[in-house]
Amino acid sequence: MEDAQIIALYIQRDEAAIAETQRKYGAFCSRIATNILSAEDAEECVNDAYHQVWLAIPPQRPTHFSAWLGRIVRNNAINLWNKNHRKKRYNGMTELLSELEESIPSPRTMERELEARELSDCLDHWLRALKQEDRVLFLRRYWYGMSLQDLAKEQHMSSGKLAQRMFRLRTNLRQALEKEGITL
After folding, report:
1. How many secondary structure helices (H) and strands (E) does the chain include?
2. I need a surface site. Which of 10, 40, 100, 138 has the fewest CB within 10 A?
3. Interatomic CA distance for residues 43 and 38, integer angstroms
4. Angstrom distances, CA of residue 126 to CA of 169, 174, 181
5. What pTM, to 2 d.p., does this model score?
6. CA distance linking residue 176 with residue 168, whole number of Å
7. If we measure between CA atoms, which residue out of 153, 166, 145, 162 comes closest to residue 31?
């Protein structure tokens, strides 16, 4: 079923919309969530996302349904991870964040809100300047939380070689941010 047809089901308040969303995007959503959370938490996260979509459509009518849905799942997963993190439960997300912390400053304080917007714009510009293959790798690793092993298999290269490539990308990002005056 096409995305427009699924959205039409939501607008008609037809519960088949959730089933069709799960059928078409269930694996996609589960992969995003399990890259951040445990399997049980990921399932809860995805179900919460389906509920949020039900509540959001209408009035919203996303033009890129899969990206919109993926963002909802990812945000839910990060929120749940943060909740679990406060309870001292750690998983693979800790590794991802520690890899990026040397390249990107934390925008957690009120004083840094403007800097966070500037950082976002700079990161957007940097991503657009990358070769498509590097951009896809960076986003799959740091947006979708894919493991180095999974990415290495997809790229038909060793984990070590891919780790070096990711290190070079992070170094390049740090240099681009410093060039723009964003201090680390």
Report:
1. 9, 0
2. 40
3. 9
4. 10, 10, 14
5. 0.59
6. 12
7. 145
Whether the Cβ atoms of residue 32 and residue 74 lie closer than 8 Å to each other: yes
Q: Tokens 């790798």 appear where?
A: 137
Q: How far is it, in rounded angstroms, from Cα 36 to Cα 73? A: 10
What length is written for the chain?
184
Say if residue 59 is preceded by a cis peptide, omega within 30 of 0: yes
**Per-residue model confidence as pLDDT tens for the chain (184 residues):** 899 999 999 999 999 999 999 999 999 999 999 988 888 899 999 999 999 999 999 888 898 999 899 999 999 998 888 887 665 545 555 666 667 666 665 555 555 566 667 777 788 889 999 999 999 899 888 887 888 888 899 889 998 999 999 999 999 988 888 887 776 6
Q: Are 33 and 45 in contact (CB under 8 A)?
A: yes
**Cβ neighbours of residue 150 closer than 8 Å, sequence gap 6 or more:** none
Contact 143, 78 (CB under 8 A): no
HSE-up of 114 (CA within 13 Å, CB side)? 1
DSSP 74-95: HHHHHHHHHHHHHTT---HHHH
